[in-house]
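User: Hi! I have a protein structure encoded as tokens and I'd like to know what sequence might fold into it. I'm fairly new to this, so please keep things simple.
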């Protein structure tokens, strides 16, 4: 796996806060000293995430999803800020963060669940122009690593039709409108009869995940399980 010099990667981008700046040897979820070589998330945070993380999302929030799970709350919890790990991944492009988040998702979620039987793992796509700008899709990195570890096919049949506004500042209703009709299946892609794990970095109101799942179900997918890093 390629590892970029974090200083150069970080300097190339502008950051929203100093905390988003990756400091070599410092944990991206607590800011403490990393106790293992080439790590981004320290062993202490890893243990806390495994102990307290791995939750189900219920109710209307998961309407098109057979089940929905997330690794850890977006806001800091038990002193562990997984939301910062996701933001740092997006801004820095340090792929190793995605691999460690996928490893923790394996530890906390997948080992406890039977949906390992899925036929395919699919990431929530970014719009082409957004992906070009960022250089990668963080959900794709995480989904790819989960697929590799679970030995489940990784496919990327979804496409974003419109470059939706950032969901961050929107109300729940506005989020629904914002992602309505946002996804479609690529030209000759087929998901007919497949049990799918749909992966995103963040599950807020579920608008994005449910919209994408709706498209997959419309196109004949058997069922869709949602998996996100934060909620
Ligand atoms: Zn830590």
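Assistant: Happy to help. Inverse folding works backwards from shape to sequence: for each of the 231 positions I chose a residue that suits the local structure. Here it is:
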């Amino acid at each position: 796996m390629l590892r970029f010099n974090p200083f150069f990667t970080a300097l190339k981008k502008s950051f929203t806060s100093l905390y988003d700046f990756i400091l070599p040897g410092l944990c991206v979820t607590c800011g403490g000293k990393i106790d293992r070589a080439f790590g981004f998330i320290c062993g202490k945070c890893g243990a806390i995430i495994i102990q307290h993380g791995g939750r189900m999302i219920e109710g209307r929030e998961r309407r098109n999803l057979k089940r929905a799970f997330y690794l850890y709350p977006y806001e800091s919890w038990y002193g562990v800020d997984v939301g910062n790990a996701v933001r740092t991944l997006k801004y820095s492009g340090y792929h190793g963060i995605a691999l460690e988040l996928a490893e923790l998702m394996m530890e906390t979620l997948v080992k406890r669940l039977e949906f390992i039987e899925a036929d395919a793992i699919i990431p929530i796509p970014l719009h082409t122009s957004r992906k070009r700008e960022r250089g990668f899709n963080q959900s794709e990195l995480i989904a790819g690593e989960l697929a590799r570890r679970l030995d489940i096919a990784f496919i990327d049949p979804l496409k974003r039709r419109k470059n939706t506004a950032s969901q961050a500042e929107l109300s729940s209703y506005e989020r629904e409108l914002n992602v309505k009709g946002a996804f479609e299946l690529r030209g000759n892609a087929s998901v007919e009869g497949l049990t799918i794990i749909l992966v995103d970095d963040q599950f807020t109101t579920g608008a994005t995940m449910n919209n994408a799942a709706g498209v997959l179900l419309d196109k004949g997918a058997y069922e869709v399980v949602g998996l996100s890093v934060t909620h």
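A useful reference point when you look it over: The helical segments are 6-12, 43-52, 82-92, 95-108, 128-134, 138-150, 172-179, 207-218. Feel free to ask if any position seems puzzling.
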